[in-house]
Amino acid sequence: MRILVVGSGGVGDAVARIAARRDFFEVMVVADMDLARAERTVEAARAGRARGAAPAGEPDVDRFVAATVDASDAAAVTALARRYAITHVLNAVDPRFVLPVFEGALAAGADYLDMAMSLSRPDPEQPYARTGVKLGDEQFGQAQQWEDAGRLALVGMGVEPGLSDVFARYATDHLFSTVDELGTRDGADLVVLDDDGNPVFAPSFSIWTTIEECLNPPVIWEADRGWYTVPPFTEPEVFVFPEGIGPVECVHVEHEEVLLMPRWLDARKVTFKYGLGEEFIGVLRTLHTLGLDRTSPVRVRSADPDHPGPVAVSPRDVVAAVLPDPAMLGPRMKGKTCAGLLVTGTGPDGAAREVYLYHVVDNAWSMAEYGAQCVVWQTAVNPVVALELLATGVWSGSGVLGPEAFDAVPFLELLRAPEPAGFGSPWGMEEREPRG
Which residues contact 62 (CB under 8 A, 6 or more apart)? Predict the structure, then answer.
């Protein structure tokens, strides 16, 4: 297997650090618009391999390669993939660039994985009642081309979407006879501290993507209604997360699980709720009120005396530029992040059942082990597990498929097994009292 990772930001960097301890691939090319950033990732991966848990021998001088690429240019992705005889392209850039990387991989004759799908566009007339272009629609619209080419596009293979979808397949196969609801619930007790140890506002994931997810109309799926939308921050609920995280208020958010799970799994309802917290919701509402969530450029007067004319800038890009890089927050973060799926329905014995399947990562652990903050590490580990299953032939397929299309057991076993056999990252399951 020869892998091209497009993007060496927080998640792409963590992918290389995690993969460095594994032996299933021949080469990993880490590509970014900023070559220096890709080179830093390659350096970190080689160093991690030399001290990692897997048998290493000599450090990987040749297995990791840094390169430059423009993720908005499908032809550039194709050219780079062909240059290195790439078999699998892993998209680790934000969703704006999904389609050019997706299409560039197919043109190169490579398989493809991503952790976020092509962007949605709300219904222009009733955005809070019915769907417009849904997340992933543009990728699923090209499914026949991928199938005809005998190539696989494994979409939504991060943590959420990704691991939550694997949990859904596991639950429907092994834990339930009928499913009332597949409800992804994501929360954390993370805080970011300033130099004096005081909490500060600094999102632990891409603010560009977070704004997109949280301010777009959330999607819900019901068997007798199909997909429909509701206003942002609808139906708040306090969800108690495991391993000491505790209660966090969660609200509906637009997310890929709701668009993926019903395509393969039988459930009466599919939802996604995210534990944002009161402060974060307030910031997002303010950004929306001020128009700072917009992606279309506005013209502003330049502050540069050498270039005094107006310049066009995207308000959302400005917000992203003034906030700290999430990849650099690890040393200032403390706490845990939890991704999981609450499943309600009827167990194999015919009794009502409610189970929460979850995966918790402590920031102190991920920083000490990999030098990556916990949110990006938790996102990055899942496509690496999937790549290993594809490399060994345990998973295989063609077309545009979600994680639900594959047997969940090998994935969950490999994720949990101690190193060097597995990735040493346990997941858990809680039986909860069924709600009336």
Answer: 27
CB-based contact 206:152 (threshold 8 Å): no
Instruction: Tell me the C-alpha distance between 411 and 405, whole Å.
Output: 12
Per-residue confidence (pLDDT) for residue 128, from 0 to 100: 93
Match domain 2-114 to its CATH number in 3.40.50.720, 3.40.910.10, 3.40.640.10, 1.10.287.130.
3.40.50.720
CATH of domain 163-289+320-375+426-432: 3.30.360.10
What whole-number distance in Å separates Cα of residue 258 and Cα of residue 216? 14
Question: What value does the mean pLDDT take over residues 334-348?
Answer: 97
Cα 71 off chain centre by: 17
pLDDT value of position 329: 73
pLDDT band at 323 (very low <50, low <70, confident <90, very high): confident
Average pLDDT over residues 57-68: 76
DSSP letter for each residue of 73-104: -HHHHHHHHHHTT-SEEEE-S-GGGHHHHHHH
Percent of the chain with pLDDT over 90: 75
Query: Where in the chain are the domains?
Result: 2-114, 163-289+320-375+426-432
**Residue tagged 């805080």 (tokens):** 191
- Residue 339 β-bridge partners: 186, 359
pLDDT, tens digit, for every residue of 271-316?
999 997 777 778 888 888 888 888 888 888 777 777 777 888 888 8
The C-alpha angle with vertex 28 and arms to 23 and 159, in degrees rounded to 5, equals 80
Instruction: Please work out, in degrees rounded to the nearest 5, the angle formed at the alpha carbon of residue 378 by the alpha carbons of 424 and 39.
Output: 100
